[in-house]
Specification:
FAD-bd, FAD/NAD-bd_sf, 6 helices, DhpH_subs-bd, 40% helix
């Protein structure tokens, strides 16, 4: 649990720290039930660190010995991994962020691009990160999902459930979304590279 002093230092701020091969961000998010009133929100922090393949295998192996591929939940992080991360924080982070790493639950997630996927599957459509995931440095996840949804609504304008799907319009929507995703992915890799991440 973070101290009152730590919460006071972070509230109403977007806080970041960068050095080559490392970037850390901290910001408030809604509470467990969506609360946004002062004192009801939660602290979220993200720490990007270049990691060797061997260390990634070790860090992504949970308490049961299972090697997780995409996400290791907080309750499954081993004590050895937690201690290794806290030790790295002591060596590399300023005091405010060191305190965060010690005070809050840790979960692990490799950061990587996931290639664009076909978006149209019968009458089901993939939008946002479901259609392809890019490095988070663009901060484009919400706008990408919103754009996909708005353009899908445009492609389906006038369509009713009793009609055949407008395949030409959906193909154009699919192609436009894929091109946008690929362009944003390139931008994300450039931003990461500028921080010597990846």
């Amino acid at each position: 649990m973070p101290s009152d002093e730590l919460v006071a230092a972070l509230k109403d701020r977007f806080t970041s720290y960068m050095k080559p091969g490392m970037q850390m961000l901290c910001y408030l998010v809604p509470g467990a039930d969506g609360e946004t009133a002062p004192g009801q929100r939660r602290i979220n922090w993200v720490w990007y660190v270049n990691t060797s393949a061997d260390d990634l295998d070790r860090f992504m192996t949970g308490q049961t010995g299972t090697r997780y591929q995409s996400f290791l939940p907080a309750g499954y992080v081993t004590e050895a991994t937690k201690l290794a991360i806290q030790e790295m924080a002591e060596r590399t982070l300023p005091p405010l962020f060191r305190a965060l790493v010690h005070a809050l639950a840790i979960f692990m997630q490799p950061v990587q691009d996931v290639a664009a996927q076909p978006r149209v599957h019968g009458r089901a459509f993939l939008i946002g990160d479901a259609a392809g995931t890019i490095l988070p440095h663009t901060a484009a996840g919400t706008s990408k999902a919103f754009g996909d949804a708005a353009l899908l609504a445009e492609a389906l304008s006038g369509w009713t459930a009793s009609d055949l799907l407008p395949k030409d319009m959906l193909e154009r929507w699919n192609m436009a979304g894929t091109m946008d995703l690929e362009t944003t992915a390139i931008r994300g890799r450039r931003l990461a590279s500028g921080s010597r991440l990846g």
